Amino acid sequence: MSRMLAILKKEFLQMKRDRLTLGMVFMLPLVQLLLFGFAIQTEVKHISTVVFDQSMSYESRDLLDSFTASGYFDVTQTARSYDEITKMIDSGKAKAGIIFPADFAEKLRRGDTAPVQVLVDASDSMVSNSAISIANSIGLLKSQNIIVQKAGVQNVPYDIRVRPWYNPDGITAYYMVPAILGIIVTMTMVMMTSMGIVRERERGTLEQLMVTPVRSYELMIGKVIPYIVLGYVQITVALLVGAIVFGVPIRGSLLELYVLTLFFITASLGIGIFISNIARNQMQAFQMSFFILLPSILLSGFMFPREAMPLIIQYIGNLIPLTYYLTIIRGIVLKGIGFQYLIPQVAALLVFSVVLMSLSIIKFKKKIA
């Protein structure tokens, strides 16, 4: 009995000394419960919408008010041409577009069916499903109201023509497979890097580097390059599997994808190396990496649409590099867009890379912690 009490006392003292691990044990479940309880929403509302109203009539404004009153469509942009509305959806500034033809009001007044085109970014299946179903429902309800109020109406007043773009058949693999590439790179760069460097420190293999004239940044580059190569190998294999096995179309430039991926890899490596500088052992490195990985999966738009999240959660998601890379890879693979549409995402990843790598180099020490 006394031996067991001695062992228990020893373990509690060890936990008390290892405050970082103890803090992670208590904080990790609490933060995840609060964060994900508010963040995970499957009902998508407030879809950013651009409008091209060629009619500019009371009738078009009345139908548009029905779209906005539903709570599912937020008109954030107005377009002056079809090309402009296309660019806004391509760039991700809008997830849906509503187009009223010039003769919209005239057809309604004559009792003819007035068509309305609704363009939906179907590269995000959850957002597109909500937008398509609600748009059709609004058109049906408005038509029924007119038929009830006006006797002798022979034609259906509104013809809502929904056009899903980029993934019209709603194939889940098209949406998920490109995003899984980002998850794979995040897991490899963050977890393997952080735990690998800590493991070397625990085993004493860094002792040899202490007596060499290698500078901190040179040592950092030597540690980073193999993981960059590994990241590109993973992406190449995943793209081949996605294209051959799942039939995922690659509509954009692979060269641009590979170049822009470098910013994401370096940002993820920066997180992993920074964790390795803080963690004292592999358990701490694993806990910190998991603390980064799970929010990356749930808050970046990988599984749940960011449009459905509260605004404060979206701001937190903006602090995750994967959020920006998902826009890049889905934009290039599914939409076929180029660098000119992805400048904000690339700039954000560049900032992540520079800041995290700089902090890691400053904090990295060629000695045993």
Provide a short characterization of the protein structure.
This protein has 369 residues and is of the alpha/beta class. Helices cover 66% and strands 9% of the residues. It has 14 helices and five strands.
Chart the SSEs and their pairings.
Layout: H1 2-17, H2 19-39, E1 47-53, H3 58-69, E2 73-78, H4 82-91, E3 96-100, H5 104-110, E4 114-121, H6 125-149, E5 158-165, H7 172-203, H8 207-210, H9 216-244, H10 254-278, H11 282-299, H12 311-317, H13 321-335, H14 343-363
Parallel strand pairs: 1-2, 1-3, 4-5
Antiparallel strand pairs: 3-4
Characterization of the model:
The protein is of the alpha/beta class. The protein is 66% helix and 9% strand. The chain has helices at residues 2-17, 19-39, 58-69, 82-91, 104-110, 125-149, 172-203, 207-210, 216-244, 254-278, 282-299, 311-317, 321-335, 343-363; strands at 47-53, 73-78, 96-100, 114-121, 158-165. Strands 2-1-3-4-5 form a 5-stranded mixed beta sheet, sandwiched between helices.
